[in-house]
């Protein structure tokens, strides 16, 4: 095994994990021990860089430093390491390198899969404050965001218990949140296959393990693209910079604009999306002329196009796609923001993360709620109240709440 970072011994940590972190880590260990087959081996594993987030002072909220520049020659080596000292999160590079364990400038980049990140929190849904909690970093006090001071509570939060500010915000995504990012994933697949001609079997869709979806494109014609080319792809998908010329409207003449439809027609890609919005087709030059005039000419029409682009463009994280040296959550591993796994979606339309990605054991753990909370996992509803004494919950539910910072767990024997 080639491993540049330290050897993952507890002694190497800056802080010993608390009881809850130890309990969660133990459940994670059992998952990696019994369900290692769920870990999806990346192509060319020996050319990938791996990274870990450790349990320890960063759990249950991410924030610690990532251990990077790890390399494994086989999935067996990786799994052995995950069982020996289970990390909170496991990442694998989208890039292939000649020397993946070396420092960045000495890795020798050989290409990178094209990846996309759709994050539920980017949709600003009205349901979010009703299922988001503020958790005090100092004393662990937590309460629903909307119970505190309304949706903006995070900005002016003062902990009622210890007076500290700067809380963590943790969200228990609801099915509306999941549906929003699911629909975006479906639209992204459709654009990648329709507009870019990528074969559907080259596009893999994964639930991220918390509140979103990841797409991995494994197509050789994309893996050599540099950061700028990937940024151009993002620009296209988001509709950023969509110009009137693309639909045949240009600056000219006395009236300030002229119209000639592109030779390639308007039945494809963004042209088709804009045409549909404007209810025009290839025979509608007069109608488009009328629309442009109504919008106040070229500049006004451009503003209208920007509005259409915002409506029709995809909501994806540009940095994830543009970064050709990223380590990205590894399929089949657990997400420490939830204890759910990053899993491949068979049928994205009917995919239910709260059953299909909820893969931890059901052995019971003594759980103490830190806030009144209700959660539905694997078809069962769990209701916890702060005033209740500790209760027994199956590990998958106990770990979910602990990862959200909303419960404390005891170490089971
Ligand atoms: Zn506090
Ligand atoms: Zn929601």
Task: Give the helix proportion (percent range).
Answer: 25-40%
Using the coordinates above, name the CATH class of the largest domain.
Answer: Alpha Beta
Mean pLDDT: 90
Gyration radius from CA atoms, angstroms: 24 Å
Query: Any idea how many domains?
Result: 3
Determine the N-to-C terminus distance: 32 Å
Bound molecules: zinc ion
| Helix/strand structural class | alpha+beta
Q: Quick one: overall form?
A: globular
CATH topology of the largest domain: DNA primase, PRIM domain
Strand order of the largest sheet: 2-1-3-14
The tally of strands reads 20
The CATH superfamily of the largest domain is identified as DNA primase, PRIM domain
> Counting H and I runs of at least 4 residues, what is the number of helices?
12
What percent of residues are in strands?
15-25%
Q: Can you summarize the main beta sheet?
A: 4 strands, antiparallel
> What would you say the CATH architecture of the largest domain is?
Alpha-Beta Complex
Q: Give the low-pLDDT segments.
A: 1-14
């Amino acid at each position: 095994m080639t491993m540049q970072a330290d050897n993952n011994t507890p002694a190497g940590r800056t802080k010993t994990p608390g009881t809850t972190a130890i309990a969660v880590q133990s459940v994670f260990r059992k998952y990696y021990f019994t369900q290692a087959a769920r870990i999806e081996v990346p192509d060319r594993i020996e050319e990938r860089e791996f990274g870990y987030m450790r349990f320890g002072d960063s759990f249950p909220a991410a924030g610690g430093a990532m251990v990077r520049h790890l390399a494994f020659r086989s999935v067996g080596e990786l799994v052995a390491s995950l069982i020996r000292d289970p990390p909170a999160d496991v990442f694998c590079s989208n890039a292939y390198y000649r020397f993946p364990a070396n420092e960045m400038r000495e890795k020798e980049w050989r290409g990178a899969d094209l990846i996309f990140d759709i994050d539920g929190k980017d949709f600003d849904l009205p349901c979010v404050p009703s299922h988001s909690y503020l958790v005090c970093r100092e004393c662990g006090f937590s309460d629903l965001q909307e119970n505190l001071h309304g949706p903006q509570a995070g900005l002016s939060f003062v902990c009622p218990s210890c007076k500290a500010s700067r809380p963590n915000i943790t969200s228990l995504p609801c099915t509306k949140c999941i549906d929003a990012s699911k629909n975006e994933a479906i639209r992204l697949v459709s654009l990648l296959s329709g507009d870019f001609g990528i074969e559907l079997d080259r596009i893999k869709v994964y639930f991220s393990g918390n509140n979103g979806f990841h797409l991995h494109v494994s197509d050789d014609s994309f893996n050599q693209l540099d950061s700028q080319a990937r940024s151009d792809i993002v620009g296209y998908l988001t509709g950023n910079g969509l110009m009137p010329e693309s639909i045949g409207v240009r600056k000219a003449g006395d009236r300030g604009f002229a119209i000639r439809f592109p030779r390639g027609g308007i039945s494809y890609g963004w042209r088709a999306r804009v045409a549909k919005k404007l209810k025009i087709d290839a025979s509608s030059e007069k109608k488009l002329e009328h629309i442009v005039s109504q919008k106040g000419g070229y500049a006004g029409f451009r503003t209208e196009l920007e509005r259409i682009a915002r409506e029709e463009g995809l909501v994806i994280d540009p940095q994830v796609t543009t970064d050709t040296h990223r380590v990205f959550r590894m399929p089949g591993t657990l997400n420490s923001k939830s204890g759910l796994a990053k899993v491949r979606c068979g049928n994205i339309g009917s995919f239910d993360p709260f059953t299909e990605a909820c893969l931890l054991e059901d052995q019971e753990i003594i759980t103490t709620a830190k806030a009144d909370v209700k959660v539905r996992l694997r078809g069962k509803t769990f209701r916890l109240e702060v005033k209740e004494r500790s209760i027994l919950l199956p590990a998958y539910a106990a770990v979910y709440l602990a990862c959200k910072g909303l419960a404390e767990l005891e170490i089971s024997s």
